User: What shape does this take?
Amino acid sequence: MNAPATFKAIVTPASPRIMAERQPKIVARDVDVFYGDKHAIKKLSIDIPDRAVSAFIGPSGCGKSTFLRAINRMNDTIPSCRVAGNITVDGRDIYDRDIDVVQLRANVGMVFQKPNPFPKSIFENVAYGPRIHGLAGNKTDLEEIVVSSLKKAGLFEEVKDRLQHPGTGLSGGQQQRLCIARAIAVNPEVILMDEPCSALDPIATARIEELIDELRQNYCIVIVTHSMQQAARVSQLTAFFHLGTLVEFGDTDEVFTAPQEKRTQDYITGRFG
Amino acid sequence: MTEKQRKVQAGNIARRYAAEKRFRLYGVAALTVTTAFLAVLLVDIVWRSLPAYLQYNAVMTVTVDASKIDPAKPAAGDFEGVVKAAWREQLPSVESRADRRLLNSLLSNAGGSELRRQVLADPSLIGKEVSVPVMLSDDADLYLKGVVTGVARATGDGPLQIRAEGENYFLSGRGIDPGAIVLAAGGAFKIAPEGSSAPAEVIAAPGPAAEVPAGQWQLLSFDTPETGRKIGDRQAVWLEMLRDKNVFERQVAWNFFLNGDSREAEQAGILGSIVGSLMVVFVTVALSLPVGVAAAIYLEEFAPKNRLTELIEVNINNLAAVPSIIFGLLGLAVFLSFFGMPRSVPLVGGLVIALMSLPTIIIASRAAVRAVPPSIREAALGIGASHQQAVFHHVLPLAMPGIMTGTILALASAIGETAPLLLIGMVAFIVDIPSGFLDSATVLPVQIYLWSDLPEKAFEARTAAAIVVLLVIMMVLNALAIYLRKRFERRW
Assistant: This one.
């Protein structure tokens, strides 16, 4: 559809009810992201709370994945990508020179669209992160971390007898939970999920959604999804992106039942997108 | 769909199937032709190489004469003299100086080497009688193998009359034609040529006999006239007589596998060039694999994409197409002239071939690194691995099979490389087996080239055998590399 230039982007974020109760974990102010000449994110500002699931929805190419990847600086790997503005996690500017990107990514974990376990054993997949960050003093510690991460990811019961088997031999849903366990193992505070269920069948999806719901007790979770049902099921907050701008951000039930913006209404009722 | 469209479509389908069938046929034909060529090539080379693996030795009882081999200094002993004495004893009827020289020339001039080895290992043999194999000359060996000339022995038909008049003998019987060679009564004769009534030439003096009954004398005939043979009639007769005495044994020609090069075909071996080849390959791998892989990883993963790196890329691709002899010239100019490195040494050979294989390895390694799915890189980066950790822990292991394949291809061509090595002096005639990277050496393909140029018939088989050995080494190296690749692959 045409981009009506008259649409107003939210410059100051709306303040969902949930925000009244807790501190924002991630704060973005006037974020612009460019891919070469393409202006992918325009003056985006948002406050994302801790210990809740925030869902980013919107049509393809609206910049939700781009913004997600800006939060742990995965965009750094794309040479033409440039980020302007200000994103803080726990009050620290993540684009500050003093911030070590490796440290940041350990703190802000990521789960990708397609399950991408390392072509190593299940154990090694989970142990890799703690090992490179020196989180485990010895082998017992490492095993403990692996087991507890797998348990948190709800995978341990299924794989406890075959930790040395290749991670790539698991089913798609199990692989994705393995990736979540791998992200959890380095003890992050934020977990970014980029359409984590798009490659999975409904049963595996349900399992992951359950897991996300459990994880929100301890983590700040941001999930990008194309499924509005999924956003409604797992998230407490929903942000609707369109054409690189944040159109609406609020409590999920409100966004889905009484959206403030007409564009949100049109999108969630399936009139475009 | 109208009737007409349906018809057109049916015709189309028939044509499509026919095209596919034709293409399959072309494929099968191409495969058949290549397989046939390969088979013909292999069979031909292996067939030609067969005479090189076994050789005839004269197994004789030799008296290790203490007067010729000093027990105090056995290494300086005259082993050849001892062996030759034993050799002459086999044919006491050969007496004249000229004949003795001819007889001696049937032995290799290193015929005593086996005796020497045994005596040096056990000096108590001096003064005793030992049974040792004595190497024959290449011509005698080829004669016995029947490679040079066909020889036929026909048992005489009817009785043979021998009339002795003093020193002269006259023979008559069926088949006794001018020029024929007759073995009879423990001696041998060559009938005088046509038109002369001269007595028969005595090749080996016979015992006293006037009439030899049918079946106890033989006629010897050759496919080639004497002038076209390395082994003359007299030598041939001696060899035949010794063959009858079961002096010769066909044994494995260890010389071929354990010696360096030699001017004498029967002593020439390929160990020197095998060792040279392995050293060159070792230097090549040690240099080009790490440098090539590091360059590929840097270019693919870390290098900024700008004009300079693009230029470098283009040049690497062009270098892969540069004729190998140019690399030889480069090696000559840079390593030998500028850096003053020694000529003919495996180190320089390895350096030159490493330069030559680098572009291939870099191109293959880059393709392999590029083929690793980006999701693996993202996965590693996403849990806080540094770029280098992501590359070395995850990308490189996955790219390893591809890198190995490229390296195998580069090495397969490197081990068969000849031209650049000619230019840096590895074409020299080198007898010693190299023991270090700075010893003069040659390599198998150059050895093949050198031998193929020699006129001696025996080198023909050695050339073919050296080719077989080169092919075997290539296969072994490739099998090793494939095994390594499989092992890397098993790490999922």
Observations:
- Strands of chain A lie at 24-35, 38-49, 53-57, 81-89, 92-93, 108-111, 190-194, 220-224, 237-242, 245-251.
